Amino acid sequence: MDLVTPTSVKRYSPPFAWRLLATALSFALFGIGGVILRVAIFPLLALLPGDRLTHRRRARATVSRLFHLFVQFMSRSGVLSYEIQGVERLGQPGQMVIANHPSLIDVVMLIACIRDSNCVVKQSLWDNPCMRGPIRACGYISNSGSLDMLDEAAGALREGQTLIVFPEGTRTTPGRPPEFHRGAAAIALRGARLVTPVVISVYPTTLTKAEPWYRIPSRRFHVCLRVGEPIDPARFASLGPAPLASRRLNDHLHQYFMKELAADERSASRD
């Protein structure tokens, strides 16, 4: 799914008042859309023929397409601009997509890029009235932090699903480097055929863990997703016992993201 926007588009920024209104409309649209999916769209899709796997794929394709349209709405209304580099590398069987998590829009854009993806999501979202319908229909995995969660995630990868994971577990605290939990590396070593890093940068920062939705930046923000080269987890599995291999893979990923994010910051400071 092509979400690539010419980088020149990010130079134009609509007036502040318009972007604030468009941001409010975006949040309202997202919330209302989630409720409509839960009470109307997914019950109708459930009536269509097919087994459990077919229904799950249908639900994920629906969410992916709607997220694509949502990103288009935010872009065309002037809230954000974006670019995605290397999108053709996403969506492979048994692929674990690992990304940093600077803003609320990250997971939306990644799911929009991958038609049939699984995702590890926060436990609290399972009780969110706007999100629990899509989450359950798509068969996403709850980030409970238990061993059962690790087994479920690894099992999804062994089945050939594409799995999106944010190793930080929550959005990055502004001004601090990302902190990766080792659970993502443990999942990769248990079930992934390949690990694909996606470096996400958002400038100016917005929709972070510390900011309410209405505290928008002084100009249209730009989101960049850069899909890196795949990593073979077997390289690390052969280094020793599982805890050691997990720690080394986690360190490798953390260093990779720190290096790439530092390069993004230098690039942003020159713009």
UniProtKB/TrEMBL annotation:
Residues 95-203 form the Phospholipid/glycerol acyltransferase domain. InterPro entries: Plipid/glycerol_acylTrfase. SUPFAM superfamilies: Glycerol-3-phosphate (1)-acyltransferase. Pfam families: Acyltransferase. Keywords: Acyltransferase, Membrane, Transferase, Transmembrane, Transmembrane helix. Pathway: Lipid metabolism. The chain crosses the membrane at residues 20-48. This is 1-acyl-sn-glycerol-3-phosphate acyltransferase.
